[in-house]
Amino acid sequence: LHDALPIYPPALNNKIVPMKPPPKHHPLPSKWLLLSGWLIILLLAYGRLLIHPNLHTAFPENDTWNLPIRQSVLWYFRQGQLPLWNPLSAFGIPWLATWQTETFYPGTLLFTWLGLGAWNFSGLLHLLVFSTGIYCFLRSAGVKPFWAFFCSAIGLLNGCAFNHLGSNSSMDTMAWVPWMFWATGRRAGGLAWGGRSFSLFLVLQVFAGYPQIIFYNLVGCMAYAAFLKGWRSLGTFLLPMAAGLALSAAQWMPSVEYFFLQCVRLPAVHDNPHFFLPPENLRTFFDFDALACDGKPDYVANPTFFYFNFYSGLLPLGFLGWGLLRTGRLKPLTRFFLFGFLAWVLWSLGAPLMLLEWLRIPFPGFLEPAKSWVLVNIFELAGLGFILKDLFPKAGKWKWPILVLGIFNLLLPVWNHPLERNLAPDSPRLRAQIGR
Question: pTM of the predicted model, to two decimals?
């Protein structure tokens, strides 16, 4: 009899079985949309640098420092040797102790394989690493994808990014700064791979080789970790930092031994021995070409300081100003980056070192406050992302015109900024050496 009874479906036995929805056509994954967006912006802004590899952003140190370093390093590597010594400058300079040679940096392989034709490609690749790092850092801190992409697009196009495309060591070191903040958050939160990531990015920064950027980046990361978990949490970074320094000792140890113990340090600028940022550079927050003068572009009128260009467009400044007016609605993390941005601006101008100088209290010349520009840039972009997150959690369709306006506002000065050709004389021997 039991076998003869009908078998009822589960839904008839007082159980509700949800119906499976029909399969839908899934849109393109968001990661591919983001990658497409980054590549489109890169091509719109810097496509001419890829089409014409002999063009470089107008940077006065290209022909006097960056290009000769690359040429020398290439020659040594293609001879199967490490670039240990440069006999042609200042009665001889230990190349290994000069961080900007990037002897052990993986990105140097691009130049070894492709010659100086990789110059623009390397700069844009590291700019993409920098921009995606900003996106990943903001996303890990809870910022929605649209606002995180907005900030990373600003980072891709702002004055600090554009003007450092011609300085390999600065750009390569800067590229890993947001990733260090990302790893700091993971380590402070006890998440997997936090310590190892911190060590890895520290090694890449040391090998990229701009010591002041690395120093200020570590200061910023430790301040961020202390804010998240308190000052005692800094002890958890001792092992990752020691591991990173041990793995990169081949780069920093000769430099410390030579430049800090044996050399007499000359001031970066004779009229500005402590390298404070001139107040006139603050105008670049509002005008990309603020340092141009009498029809001369900034890199001619102001060759020393032009690359401290903080222009990020007027929309980001408007949002930052709105955040200052609505401080009460901001979360603690947002206030940390917003007021940290203002503090780093003051530090780059020389405060409070001017007071120590006035009191004749010595301080290390290595500090060079103007070199903290990278923290000014990072804290501005992070503060922007967190302000957008707090004040506009449910942004409507108006966010798309804001994105377009913000990008277009930055594309105009990039398109209009002059480019230069290297001044190195064209010769068959030189072309053979650099592999162009």
Answer: 0.88
